[in-house]
Input
Amino acid sequence: MVKTLGYGAQPRAEYAVDPELSCGRLYPESDSPTRTPFQRDRDRIIHSAAFRRLKHKTQVFVYHEGDHFRTRLTHTIEVSQIARSLARALRLDEDLAECLALAHDLGHTPFGHEGEDVMHECMADYGGFDHNAQSLRIVTDLERRYAEFDGLNLAWETLEGLVKHNGPLTDRSGAPCGKLSGKGLPFAVSEYAKHQDLLLWSWPSAEAQVAALADDIAYDAHDLDDGLRAGLLSFEAMKDVPYLKRILDEVDGKYPGLEDARRIHEIGRRCITGMVEDVIAESISRINQLSPKKCGDIRDANGPVIAFSTEMAREERELKEFLFANLYRHESVLAVRKQVAKVVRDLFHAYFKAPERMPEPWCTGLNGESDEVVARRVCDFIAGMTDRYAIDEHRRLFDDTPELG
Output
């Protein structure tokens, strides 16, 4: 029987991933005398160039709009905190959950999802673009830091959790499934599959599922927080969302007349707490029903074991719909999205037409290469840019760089 946990160290559950039984790395390395494989992976991710660049990549609001709004980096840190909390309560390997949370957004383009959409449009004839797959590409190829291999040479369990952030990618026959059905695997995933089998047909570990739910919880609550602080969302509009109305009523009933800044924070923290506690309760119920004896039983399950309850899943969808309609589609946000789309599109076509416009080593060795190879190199270069660097590059190449905002 699984029980919720209080403070203090607790024995790892039998269904958790055991770092001592890791499947290892693509390029064998000696064990660290002071760290588990997943602690080592976490450290490699934190020290990577891609992780540092998250500081200047957009979450919702572009970098110039204020110092207090979330960036990809602060969002990532918040996801890792929630992931560790969930992993601790469920007696999972906290280090693996944290590692996956820290790596999950490494592949994001500049300018958030607008940048990703434009990049996918530009790459439509060359394998497309997917930020989850790009995260895999970064940690297996594009980080060039170590003397003996490209990438970060992360453990199998870390790569598996990273590539299956949203669940299985194929059925057991290898045919793409779910959102990928009829589309094929993302380029980076199909390329890496030639080197290592990540069991794309199975569910990922419970630790990976925890990181994925922590991502949802973090961006729901914190986009709400940023939207309220920016004045794009209102307390009155929140009352149309049952989950938010209950929270707002609780805060206002306990602290009548509370100033807006504190009111917003109280709403956000309760939003996170409610979702976290729901995930713990629902996951314990699913784990007890499955009675897994090893981490492989989690992968072989017919569905996720880490999840919202049916009621919370519905309320979380309603919250997402509220944010989409009132924040992500707000006229001021859309106006900036249109401007940054031009920046990314212009850069892609400029570099694709004349790769020598890219700095070394990005422009090196492209003479005589196919359009597919050139396009992927350009894609990798742009996807790694920060918002600020993308704007600077556009100013260097064009005379009509938009003034954002």
